[in-house]
Amino acid sequence: MDMHNQEHYPDPTPQRALSAVEAQRKALRAYRPLVYICSPYSGATDKNILAARRYCRFAFEEGYLPLAPHLLFPQFLDDRDPKEREAGLHFGNILMSLCREVWVFGDTISPGMDAEIRRARWKNYRLRFFNETLEEAEK
Question: Would you place residue 105 in the very low, low, confident or very high pLDDT band (cuts 50, 70, 90)?
Fold first, then answer.
């Protein structure tokens, strides 16, 4: 890139601008901390799936890599089968141990969420709570 203006005087502005654009592109590809998404699944499943997807999008926009096992495991495990549900919860616990934080979403805590929250507290994981409008709340 030519570092001179039309009058042939040194002009570092274009280089600085392009460097800033490149830095922004690199930042978007940079490491994102893994965050465990804890929200309801059973019951109003369709509504809960849409909400969990919205929560994942929120985490992504906040600079995190969201992990929502309740969006993954029902793809191949039957949540109505007690053994398969238990396997899914166990797999979720394994994945939770890889995450930097556990984010709990919604105004209602389901039994599965309660078990995840208790485990996170027992393991001393950082917990953050958000209401359904994505505002952080104290718990």
Answer: very high
Positive or negative: CA dihedral 109, 62, 54, 90: negative
How far is it, in rounded angstroms, from Cα 111 to Cα 119?
A: 12
Across the range 107-131, mean pLDDT stands at 95
Residues 6+ apart with CB under 8 A from 71: 49, 52, 53, 56
**Token pair for 22:** 């490149």
User: Strands of 101-105's sheet, edge to edge?
Assistant: 65-67, 34-38, 101-105, 126-130, 136-137
Measured between its terminal Cα atoms, the distance across the chain in Å is 54
Name the helix (H) or strand (E) containing 92. Answer: helix 82-96
